Automatic annotation (TrEMBL):
Catalytic residues, chain numbering: D206, E209
Domain CBM20: 507-622
GO cellular component: fungal-type vacuole
One GO-annotated biological process of the protein: polysaccharide catabolic process
Binding positions for substrate per the UniProt entry: W150
GO molecular function annotation: glucan 1,4-alpha-glucosidase activity; starch binding
Name listed for the protein in its UniProt record: Glucoamylase
UniProt keyword terms in alphabetical order: Carbohydrate metabolism, Glycoprotein, Glycosidase, Hydrolase, Polysaccharide degradation, Signal
Listed SMART domains: CBM_2 (SM01065)
EC annotation from Swiss-Prot or TrEMBL: 3.2.1.3
UniProt similarity note: Belongs to the glycosyl hydrolase 15 family.
Species name: Xylaria hypoxylon
Amino acid sequence: MGIISAKSIAWLSVLAACSITNGSNLPRPNNLDAFVKKQRAISLQNVLNNIGPDGSRVPGAAAGVIVASPSTVNPDYFYTWSRDAALTMKMIVDEFLLGDKRLQPYIEDFIHSQAVIQTVTNPSGTFFPNGAGLGEPKYNVDLTRYNGAWGRPQRDGPALRAIALITYSNWLLSNGQGKKAKTVVWPIISNDLSYVGQYWNSTGFDLWEEVQGSSFFTTQNQFRALVEGGVLAKRIGVQCTGCDQAAQVACFLNESYWNGEYFIANINSNDGRTGKDANTVLGSISVFDLNARCDDASIQPCNSRSLSNFKAFVDSFRDSTLYPINKGVPQAKGIALGRYTEDVYFTGNPWYLITAGAAEYLYDAAAQWKAQGSLTIDETSLAFFQDIYPVAQTKTYSSKGKYSELPRILKAVTNYAESFAEVVQKYTPTDGSLAEQFSKTSPFNPTSAIDLTWSYAAFVSMAERRAGQYSPSWIPAKGSVVVPQQCTSGSTKGVYSPATAAGAPDINATCTSNVRFEVNATTYYGENILVAGNTTDLGSWDFGNGWPLDASGYTGQRPLWAATIALTAGQTINYAYVRQEDCGQDPIWESATANRTLVIPPCDPDADPDAILIVTNDSWQGQTGSTGGC
Ligand SMILES: *[C@@H]1O[C@H](CO)[C@@H](O)[C@H](O)[C@H]1NC(C)=O
Ligand SMILES: *[C@@H]1O[C@H](CO)[C@@H](O)[C@H](O)[C@H]1NC(C)=O
Ligand SMILES: *[C@@H]1O[C@H](CO)[C@@H](O)[C@H](O)[C@H]1NC(C)=O
Ligand SMILES: *[C@@H]1O[C@H](CO)[C@@H](O)[C@H](O)[C@H]1NC(C)=O
Ligand SMILES: *[C@@H]1O[C@H](CO)[C@@H](O)[C@H](O)[C@H]1NC(C)=O
Ligand SMILES: *[C@@H]1O[C@H](CO)[C@@H](O)[C@H](O)[C@H]1NC(C)=O
Ligand SMILES: *[C@@H]1O[C@H](CO)[C@@H](O)[C@H](O)[C@H]1NC(C)=O
């Protein structure tokens, strides 16, 4: 969730002034056990309230569609995001495995909705021939494409969806329903793993939808998906296209993000930030496996570098000039946490899901050391431990022996986890509603989207770990992979096929040719350019269905807006460009004389499906826009 594009920051920060006021009467923390028990049930119910078709807060959402929030204005989150939905579904599958049988229909509906969504043509691309459409971050709640300008593609969605569905498939297999796992669910997973194997080494937008580059969270989840996808494929006797990339993804994860103190959240980008970001903590809880080794390639919560990273990230929010809410909290205690310190979205406040995520992270790490019966502190992790256990030394602490210190260290880690959970408790309104954020300044009221599905899902998974409840292991006993000595770039061409047994429409690959639309159009900050035309892919002259162009190549020398679109080969189209204004003013179309004609070249089924067959060389004709001053 977050900013629609860097260009829109100014617009959104205006909204930041408006905050929700239902957070008065904050309860004082007491009895964390009772709070967590009650809030876990409230949170799960509130997740279900945001799922179609029967969710009480999301009328109009199709079956299995997990809506990000019922909020339709300031901000409008009434969409389904692939990432939020998949993370939420993972929690639902885990709760189902823990015995909540009434959740199974939600899982089944989700499977159906995702089979359909995979085939929807959208501004990230089409399903055929190269799966590019799977990278679309969000859709309308009726499963149609969302056409507005956005930070796209985002490459974590397919990986996270695969992870949730693999967990469920493993349960099906262990419960006599292997055929269903293979014929109904696997085809969806297979498309997603194809996408991951093909695009892991391409840039995309991060989980906060702001930075184009390579994102630690995305890479880490891609790695998990490929490893456990490969194991599942073997179990059901099918090929996994893309899973062969796992070792190179691990190498990239291990080598490229670490700076000696923490994992830089976004690389292959120039975002001008320190790189300390909740991204790197949320990634590790999403790949957590109780039985993993701390040096596993997946970078587990108990990994030394991950612990150093955790400290660096958390400490960045201890500055009380930045976060008055954390004033006076001692070093060994949990604090309210936001996404990253440079954040300006809704003025950059703490998030419930991140603060709960920090607690979950620490419960995870403590559980791993407990399971292993030992804990090794090294130079890298020492500072993390000294904050909460001042006499910590670089050595291996074992549970053996009468005077073992290990229980004391684990107690310190657990207390630290509890102190983050207490922060969530302190700022949760009495009715248990969880918005996206709570204000960093007094009176610390909830703000941004109300009833954020991901906030609730994060609370439930934190509560599971606190209760000693874990998702099944996904890492094979011998470790996830052996990381190669030398990292190389890579991509395996994916195989995409609609998951018809799960309800995907029986679409077949049409012969398409890639057209690159390029137009020189000088725009002001906040303005966007779309291309519209007389075919359905180009919105049939409907501005709201036009295809948003991307300004990443825009420079002082060349005001370039561009997009590559796969269009049915052989046809003749009419098209024109249109300006989307910053404050919702009427769109500005090019002058009628600019109504252009283009013949889409015939396709060559043997050619590279990504080859661009024609590039337009257009220049905006007509009126320019001016800011609305909103
Ligand atoms: C691709 O992989 C190589 C090798 O790990 C790495 O150096 C490079 O940064 C990666 N690029 C992207 C965009 O993932
Ligand atoms: C990751 O890289 C570090 C430093 O280059 C190396 O010491 C470590 O063994 C690598 N981890 C794995 C799992 O290979
Ligand atoms: C797609 O192809 C399959 C196999 O050739 C065929 O059975 C099916 O009818 C086709 N679907 C459409 C919508 O053309
Ligand atoms: C779009 O316009 C072109 C050129 O006028 C025409 O040949 C084509 O049939 C039109 N396509 C549709 C779908 O109307
Ligand atoms: C372009 O021309 C077609 C056919 O002449 C017409 O239907 C369409 O409305 C025109 N579009 C614009 C934006 O002028
Ligand atoms: C693009 O169009 C401009 C203006 O008509 C022309 O000067 C230029 O040569 C064209 N470039 C290409 C690559 O066709
Ligand atoms: C667009 O700008 C580029 C760079 O200035 C120029 O080479 C190209 O000819 C321009 N295209 C048109 C159609 O004017």
